[in-house]
Amino acid sequence: MVFQTFFLQLKKDAVGVPTDESLQLPCFTLGFEASTNISIIQAYLETAKRLSDNRADTANVTKRLDDIRCSNPPKPSIYEPEDFYARKIFTLTVLKRFSDCMAELKVKDRIC
What confidence tens digit (pLDDT) does each residue in 62-112 have? Predict the structure, then answer.
């Protein structure tokens, strides 16, 4: 998967930068909460992109999420760290959580 490869490259470039275990993203779900979860995921990805000075190119993923979202729930407010190191941690964590979610979906797809 391209996104997972991108995350691994970013992690390699950020040796020694931990992820923030307290930061959690929703994973994909079916049903009425799907659009809300997609909106939250998109907001985090857009914030990670902005905080990384656009090095984290999430445009393609965000576009794909737009394609599968059924409605337009309100855009959530995401806390943006101001410190450079905290921004790096935030970006790395968001990309890791999304990558983990996609890997989990891939495993579930193999089971079905």
Answer: 888 888 777 777 788 898 999 999 999 999 999 889 888 888 876 555 544
Residue 43, in any domain of the structure: yes
* Domain extent at residue 104: 2-15+26-111
CA atoms within 13 A on the CB side of 85: 4
Q: In sequence order, which residues have a C-beta less than 8 Å from that of residue 2 and are 6 or more positions away?
A: none
Residue 84 lies in a domain: yes
d(C-alpha 22, C-alpha 97), whole Å: 11
Q: What is the pLDDT of residues 16-34, one digit of tens each?
A: 888 898 988 888 777 777 8
Number of domains making up the chain: 1
Q: Evaluate if pTM is beyond 0.90.
A: no
